[in-house]
């Protein structure tokens, strides 16, 4: 694997719990941190809506449940956009792809900030999501290349931490700003910041090596033959879908059930974001050494936490604590799952990375859609947490299968 701009090569077979691994670099390259800034903007725009649902619904004269479609449509756009744009831009320089994605991202936010028709706004969110999917898929591969094989999960953990930091800083600030200046203000800010990020990408992402320019769509599609890859993708969908089914409607739960004041909701979002940030960094670091431990324990913990939220939602303090812990466990396995997908796909890292983005957002779209339906059921505002519990529990099926299959493959190879 080239560490600067070359093609991501297939690492050696993943062992379930390797006793030793080559030590990675003590400090990750600057470009990995810059790419994390990009995912920070992407994570902010995806979930800032969760903290502004009542304000957006009131201004556009739509129901809170329907306003939640702004999250669902964004997820659908990433499902389609990540693999589609990964294939369409396969032979474009990665730096150019990242810059173009940020440009479209900025335009989409300007349309939302100016829009008054809900359908037009949903269309702009879809456009923005396609650009986000393209950026994220290429950023994952660029970060892994820059970090090298011994620090791949750690690099992906940092890139993912950009999105997690969005929940700590971006989403709460967006919620505060939306309450003070109107919900359109955060979208204007994101448009400006994404335009500025184009300059940073241009300065730090290196030119591609010659091998990347000879890659073909056909070679990338060979990734689809890996059964282990599909198990990883299933885990990506369920682990994220379970957590974000609940998180997408956390504001109605806190205000309507836990009786938290609306002005305090952004602070709860900070707690979730801090947990998610720590989980992404810790999970990424542990994932280079104990991948299966992380991918089993993290969703198991998230399932138990979601169940506890469902049962204790009427109590404010326990609910806030549980939401913070949910951030840590719920998204901690994501960088490890992405790294496993790239490894199992062997010579097709770009498509594998794109498919993980699609899987994460497929889970988000389905989970948030089902969760939104439960708001009008007898479950009320606790419905999303109940839905999240069931979906998160399903993650253990593919992650346990991966862990059980790996020793057999290793033993067969030794024999």
Automatic annotation (TrEMBL):
Bilayer topology term: Multi-pass membrane protein
Domain of life where this protein originates: Bacteria
Keywords: Cell membrane, Membrane, Transmembrane, Transmembrane helix
InterPro entries from the UniProt entry: MFS, MFS_dom, MFS_Efflux_Transporters, MFS_trans_sf
Subcellular location: Cell membrane
Record-annotated membrane-spanning stretches: 30-53, 65-84, 96-114, 120-143, 155-175, 187-206, 227-250, 262-282, 294-315, 321-342, 349-371, 383-405
Domain Major facilitator superfamily (MFS) profile: 31-410
Gene3D superfamilies linked: MFS general substrate transporter like domains (1.20.1250.20)
Annotated region (Disordered), positions in chain: 1-21
Protein name as annotated: MFS transporter
